[in-house]
Write a structure and sequence with these properties.
The structure is a single chain. The chain is an alpha+beta fold. Helices cover 24% and strands 29% of the residues. The protein is built from 10 helices and 25 strands. The chain has helices spanning 2-23, 43-60, 74-93, 109-116, 163-169, 174-185, 261-267, 272-283, 488-502, 527-532; strands at residues 151-156, 198-203, 215-223, 226-233, 236-243, 246-247, 251-256, 297-307, 312-324, 327-337, 340-345, 349-353, 364-366, 369-372, 379-382, 385-388, 394-396, 401-408, 414-421, 424-434, 441-442, 447-451, 461-468, 471-473, 482-485. Strand 8 (297-307) and strand 9 form a beta hairpin. The longest helix is centred in the first third of the chain and has 22 residues, at 2-23. It is extended.
Length: 537
């Protein structure tokens, strides 16, 4: 209501003001002339003005904006239109690609042959090189193609192969092959030539095609320290020996055990096979896991030969030692006593023979005696002991003997049985793979198979049995030992050999080979050399 009144009052005041203005007289002003209007532009000037405005608009407008910014804006669509217009224009003026037509003319036969002699073509299409010329009547065909004057061959002695068969298989006549074999056998036994030896053979010219080529030269390495050449001298064959300088200094490797004996020995440069033999040898004297400390010093000596030609021959482990605080903890030397090669302590006492070793590296999970069978579900006699071991772990013979069974055997799965003499035998069951055959003679510590879970088995493990007189007995109840003892001159030779090996400096075998001393020449010196060696007073 109040707002309406105010509006009415305002309206009345306005009307009052208008009424008063109408009543009061207005003063008169002198009349002024109206401004002059511009003259209308002509058509040419209007066109110039329009072109000027259009040019200014084109100049001020951004026709090529960045299409990666302000997407969807008017400026962005303007740039998209510019791009489409340019692409359409380029496509419209594109002339296109088309082959240029020409009249195909086949070359003349003579020109084709000329071109063909200079082309490179697949052999399947009759390729040739150079200018082809047809034979004339002056060309007479040969009755037989000429042979090469000499042929160079290479033969390799394979496993189970014989030297004589290799010669004959390479093309050497039976007479020459037998003569070569007799010459070589006078230097080195033919059976001692190693498998894989390469034999270089040179055969000469033969007089008739139905005759074998004669031997001109045969060269090969008969031994690690000897090269042999058989050379033809007239109608006979002569053997030439070429000795090779060989250093037989044993390889000695010493170091600290650290966190891992194997890794430390490998880091020191010991070969893997030597480290494995070293660990097996030490295991006969002490426990590898508990008796060796990280501060102990290992000492490994390996038979090692180096040839001047660069070849290296790694032999057997000769010495296995372990020191603690500068004092020997274990010293084992490989020694041949009679016909047997075994390990002896530094005192001359041989290793224990006949005592059963552990077949695998693992703990016992089930002992000998009655138990509830985990698969059959009832109590029955467990005629052995079970060792825990992962699948694929090696299984070792616990003593020397002869394998009298190797194969599948009922619930035992893959099974091996070894007779050790004295009515004693051992059995190994549930193998994943067997590494020996029946009738094989094995030695203590030799791998005879690998852990598995064949037969009645709940998981990978080794079932080990011991038999006496054909009956299974507790493997932990039988231990027999025999010890070898050196004495007399053999003991003196043993100690001399031990002293010789311990006198080898570590790494001495890796030093550079010194050339053999040059022989003194008996040739007289020249006059200038004698004058140079005298002093003039």
């Amino acid at each position: 209501m109040f707002q309406q009144r105010e509006q009415l009052l305002g309206a009345g005041a306005a009307s009052a003001r208008l009424s008063l203005a109408d009543v009061l007289p207005t003063p008169t002003r002198p009349a002024q002339p109206a401004p002059a209007l511009p003259a209308p532009a002509t058509g040419l000037e209007a066109l110039k003005a329009r072109l000027l405005r259009t040019r200014q608009f084109i100049h001020d407008t951004n026709w090529t904006p960045d299409l990666g910014q302000n997407i969807g804006s008017l400026e962005w669509f303007r740039g998209l239109g510019t791009l489409c217009l340019l692409c359409t224009g380029a496509y419209a003026v594109f002339p296109g690609v088309s082959p240029i037509g020409a009249a195909a003319t086949a070359p003349a036969p003579v020109a084709r042959e000329e071109l063909r002699s200079q082309m490179i073509m697949p052999m399947a299409f009759g390729s040739d090189t150079g200018r082809a010329m047809a034979a004339t009547d002056a060309v007479v065909a040969l009755r037989q193609a000429p042979e090469r004057p000499t042929i160079e061959l290479a033969a390799t002695i394979g496993r189970g192969d014989s030297f004589l068969r290799v010669m004959q298989r390479a093309g050497v006549g039976s007479g020459d092959a037998q003569a070569v074999a007799n010459l070589v056998s006078s230097v080195v036994p033919l059976d001692d030539i190693r498998d894989g030896t390469r034999i270089d053979i040179t055969l000469g010219r033969r007089f008739a095609r139905n005759q074998p080529r004669p031997v001109e030269l045969i060269a090969f390495r008969a031994r690690f320290d000897l090269n042999v050449e058989i050379v033809r001298a007239g109608s006979a064959l002569d053997l030439v020996q070429k000795p090779i300088l060989v250093d037989a200094t044993p390889l000695r490797i010493r170091g600290t055990v650290g966190s891992s004996l194997y890794r430390s020995a490998r880091a020191a440069g010991a070969p893997p096979s030597a480290i494995q033999a070293y660990l097996r040898t030490l295991a006969t004297q002490l426990s590898i896991g508990s008796d060796i400390r990280s501060t102990d010093q290992f000492d490994i000596i390996v038979d090692y030969k180096r040839a001047a030609t660069g070849e290296v021959e790694l032999g057997e482990l000769l010495y296995a030692g372990l020191e603690r605080s500068g004092k020997p903890r274990a010293q084992m030397l490989r020694w041949k006593s009679g016909n047997n090669v075994q390990w002896f302590e530094a005192s001359g006492v041989g290793e224990t023979r006949g005592e059963f070793a552990r077949p695998v590296n693992g703990g016992v999970t089930s002992g000998f005696g009655y138990r509830r069978h985990p698969i059959l579900g009832f109590r029955r006699m467990h005629s052995g002991i079970d060792f825990r071991a992962p699948s694929g772990a090696p299984i070792y013979a616990t003593a020397d003997g002869v394998v009298n069974y190797a194969g599948r055997k009922g619930g035992y799965g893959n099974f091996v049985r070894i007779a050790h003499g004295g009515n004693i035998a051992t059995g190994y069951g549930h193998m994943s793979r067997i590494a020996v055959s029946s009738g094989t003679r094995v030695r203590r510590g030799q791998v005879i198979g690998y852990v598995g879970s064949t037969g009645l088995s709940t998981g990978p493990h080794l079932h080990y049995e011991l038999y006496r007189g054909g009956r299974a007995i507790d493997p932990n109840s039988v231990k027999f030992t025999t010890r070898a003892q050196l004495s007399g001159s053999e003991l003196a030779n043993f100690r001399a050999r031990l002293k010789q090996l311990l006198g080898v400096a570590p790494g001495a075998a890796l030093q550079s080979l010194s050339p053999p001393p040059a022989a003194k020449s008996d040739e007289p010196k020249r006059e200038i050399e004698r004058i140079a060696g005298t002093t003039i007073a």
